[in-house]
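From the shared-data thread, chain only:
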Amino acid sequence: MAIEDILSSTEFAANTTVGEECPSQLPTVVQYLNGLDTILTVIIGITIALSLVTFVICGKNISQVLRHTPKRFKTKTIILLSIYPTVTALAMVSVLVPKSYFVCDTVSHIYFMICAYIFYSLVMAYVGGEDGFIKSSDTETFNVRTPPCCCCVPFLKRSPVTKNSLLFTRLLILQLPIIQSILFFGLNIVFLEDLDNFNRIILYFVPFIAGSILLGVWGLNILVRMIAPLYEEFKIMGKYVVLQAVLILCKIQPVVIMVIVTYVTPRCDFPLVLQVQKNAVFQLCLCGEMVFLSLWAFQLYKTPSNTRQLLAKSEST
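Structure, as tokens:
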């Protein structure tokens, strides 16, 4: 996670200068809605429309899961599929109430971290649990030389899967929701109590946030590269990519949009300050991307034709 990404969460309350000094105070909802121009109104309308599309797709996905997915996979699968309408709903709130950006960003961030561990649990359920996978994997399939830490441990070779190796992988992923929740909970308290102090201490949180995410992604990559080649019919790699894309889009994309809005269409009209414009464009893009990811997930989790095969293989292990 880039430093600019963390700082983008607080840009609404920061001073911004584009040629001339821009107002630093964010508008209230009434001021914001009264000051809307045609472009921002269209963006809000399209954002709401895309959100509704995502909700419909998610409803179909969940309906499909309830009908065709084995019982022990249902809850975990629904939680994973719900990340797309959750992100979309928070994006819609954020574009309507700009001051809520940091809170909405925190909720979507923590939900993703929870989904990361749910993904681990679902994959383990696919292969019959940890004990079942250990019994079925008689080759040296455990490999820690995966991104983003592949260069840090070049001396470690492949090894057989053991209880300890799976525990190591699980802990790497489990720390994500725990560490990230603690860090962002503390940041939200400081943000609400003392914005100036928040702007001073945010940089000190960046190494801990980034380090935790890197360790979690490392654990997920170990998991996927260990199991996906042996169980291709579960489409584990595709499901991992469509989940990880949420994190990439939510954390990398704001930096790009910030640059575009700042240098291509700079404006300082209160209440449509630069940060409000950047947020509106970002949330619009995010809602459109959630529609695409929801459709992709629909295809990946659409398994009525091979559900019996997957269930039989899982039970046989």
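The first helix runs from residue 3 to 8.
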